[in-house]
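Take a look at this chain, tokens included, and explain the fold to me:
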Amino acid sequence: MPIFDRPDRTLIDAFRDAPTAVISDNLDRLAGLSGLRPFHRKGHLVGPARTVRTRPGDNQFIHKMLDLVEPGDVVVVAGEGDTSRALVGEIMKAIAEKRGVAGFVIDGAIRDSAAFAASDFPCFARGVNHRGPYKDGPGALDVPVVDLRQCGLAGRHRRRRRGRRRDVLARHCRRSGVGGRQAIGARGRDHGGDRGRNLHGRLREEVAPVAAKRRQKEKWA
């Protein structure tokens, strides 16, 4: 199993209240997942993404991940978008909350949706199904997941995920050659005015050189 390379806490905190549209603009407007929606009552989601790749309708490796998480981690499950069986429900939600998980992002279905709707524990998923999962495997932990690769997120295990309101954005957080870091956020409500403009400038200074360097490398690849 790959060793999880945890991003710095200061990086995560810096994006906790950042306007998501501004972050997206500075990430070439490419990163983002579609088709997921929030099932929790309120609140946003940001933290290191602990990825789980599993076959449709099976949550054995989600249980394994819940034995590895640290407080503040986001459990991100690539379930191939299948909604024929739920991958998590109220019991796994309770386990995750007890272990300090920041929230779930599930490319698949959940059940016990009323428990999520009455809670501020963030959960983004593709749908709801009362049918429970199998626990046979196979699966993998802390690996690149297909849905993120399709969004331009292939590669490393150092990742942050941010979710607020309806949408989810993700991006690698890796060290750059210019001393900065690539960062990620989540699409949610927009913030205008001076606060948005000031942050836009600050993020552009930090992120734009990284994006330009990446585009130059791809141009000559």
Remarks:
- The chain is about 30% helix and 25% strand.
